[in-house]
Amino acid sequence: MKEARSKKGEEGNGMDRRDFLKVLGGGAALAAAAVSGCAPGKRKMGESGSGEGMTYRVNPNTGDKVSLLGYGCMRWPMRQGADGEEIDQERVNALVDYALAHGVNYFDTSPRYVRGTSEKATGIALSRHPRESYFIATKASNMDSSPEIRSREGSIAMYRKSFELMGVDYIDYYLLHTVGNGGMANFENRYYENGMLDFLLEERRSGRIRNLGFSFHGDIKVYDHLLSRHDEVHWDFVQIQLNYVDWKYASGMNTPAEYLYGELAKRDIPVVVMEPLLGGRLASLPQHLAAKLKQARPKDSIASWAFRYAGSFPKVLTVLSGMTYMEHLQDNVKTYSPLDPLTEEEFALLYQTADTMMKLSSIPCTACQYCMPCPYGLDIPGIFTHYNRCVNEGNVPGSSKSPGYEKARRAFLVGYDRSVPRLRQASHCIGCNQCVEHCPQTIDIPAQMHRIDRFVEDLKQGRPF
To answer: Residue 427 pLDDT more than 70?
Structure first.
């Protein structure tokens, strides 16, 4: 059995790109095979249901028929409440209703999302529907360094609170959250020394957890260690960052998705994809790159390319998207209803796009909000989002002597003040470094804040670069 699994894994690890695309082409064709209406049962990983609507993948461990589009509940719509900004529950309900009506049945949340309010809002919206109509995923998000949260008692209390907030008596998919950040010592402190992993394994045996896995960012030694225990622990699924840039250009301490996916494929472990749009960067490409994709498929959105890319991998169970707006949800539903897998030529076009993107000086922020709140009030994701948008739109002049400098200069400065209030801009960063340990992309946030602040001040003073 081990030999068979090893042979399967070669498609994502150790092959050159041309050979890999040929193998993937066969897998992508399999991913489009129609088995809509089949009763749940044991199937090989990668078999799908498409029919007239949503494409599904079948979890080989449980027979769960999971929608290829999963709902990431990190970016629920907000409104202004009596005590400040809060989740707009009515809009959340409408989004969840539309998603379920159009075949989306996987919802991913966490005790940390939306500053601790996502689980409750997600639970309220889903509780209005039959429990068997959806799968819910949440996480052991004991990342804070305080001993109380990382203790056995604190971690178990977080786990039990998730049940209470979501109003459920079992969790379909439960994850050890963002393992790898902080290295092996950090992981051992969160899950070994406090006995939390043993506790979760017992909860899976009891049926209160239906599937147990982990999400990964950071030190590859932690990833390899956890996979080395697969025969003992039996991970039901693993969540990784996978998109056509991260396939070989993972940022910071992160590892290229080519390796991560390949190791899971070897072991026949279902893959849950996060950050298919790389924090939105792959939905708003520079104009000259977007034009090439539009030329190839004029009727498709730029974002749909990234979703088709992630969905074309046969071991992928579901692809998460944090859909704040109805139009984003509708476009993603369209992309996967059913999935039209990428051709070999389309894979090559996206990898060429990634090669070009890496020559731009953008910051690999995905706006995940893990760095927030900043103790000094900075809007860290907002600052990075504005800077990256201007890079993509060509509004970051490289020199005061560049053509169109004044137009680009004004566009950057005016847009900066409009999108980020002045008291929350990069100039107020004191370099306390409290944000750095929480960043899944391992960005040196204070260094980037100071770089952007110097850039802004140079623009204001009209100094040459």
So the answer is: yes
Q: Which residues pair with 87 in a beta bridge?
A: 78
Residue for token digits 């922020």?
Answer: 365
Check: CB of residue 58 under 8 Å from CB of residue 40.
Answer: yes
Place of tokens 């059913």: 338
Query: Residue 247 in contact with residue 257, Cβ under 8 Å?
Result: yes
Alpha helices in 188-301 (DSSP H): 196-206, 220-228, 230-233, 257-266, 287-296
Tokens of 335: 């992309």
Where residue 251 falls among pLDDT bands split at 50, 70, 90?
confident
Q: Phi/psi of residue 22, each to 5°?
A: -65, -45
Judged against a pLDDT cut of 50, whether residue 42 lies above it is answered with no
| Residue 424, pLDDT score | 93
Provide the H-helix boundaries in 151-190: 152-166, 183-187
Q: Give the distance from CA 112 to its chain's centroid.
A: 14
Phi, psi for 359 (deg, rounded to 5): -85, -10
Give yes or no for a cis peptide into 464 (omega within 30° of 0): no
pLDDT for res 314: 97
Write the pLDDT tens digit of every residue in 390-411.
877 766 665 666 667 788 888 8
Compute the Cα dihedral for 68, 73, 75, 76 and give only its sign: positive
In DSSP terms, which residues pair with 216 in a beta bridge?
Answer: 179
Instruction: Tell me the C-alpha distance between 228 and 432, whole Å.
Output: 37
CA distance 284 to 388: 10
Answer yes or no: are the C-beta atoms of 194 and 150 closer than 8 Å.
yes
Selection from 239, 247, 201 nearest residue 223 by Cα? 239
User: 423, 321, 312, 432: which is closest to 25 by C-alpha?
Assistant: 312
Q: Rounded distance, CA 20 to CA 391, Å?
A: 32
Residues 260-284 as b/e (b if ≥16 CB within 10 A, e otherwise) read bbbbbbbbbbbbbbbbbbbbbbbbb
The pTM for the full model equals 0.76
- CA distance linking residue 138 with residue 203, whole number of Å: 14
Residue 313 · residue 27 · CB < 8 Å: yes
Q: Of residues 424 and 394, which shows the higher confidence score?
A: 424
Quick one: tokens of 42? Answer: 């044991």
pLDDT band at 270 (very low <50, low <70, confident <90, very high): very high
Q: Is 138 exposed, middle or buried (0-12, 13-18, 19+ CB in 10 A)?
A: buried
Angle formed at CA 302 by CA 299 and CA 308, multiple of 5 degrees: 90
Question: CA 136 to CA 171: how far, in whole Å?
Answer: 6
State the angle between helix axes of 344-357 and 302-311 in degrees (0 to 180), rounded to the nearest 10.
120
Residue 112 pLDDT greater than 50, yes or no: yes
Whether the ω angle into residue 373 lies within 30 degrees of 0, i.e. cis, is yes
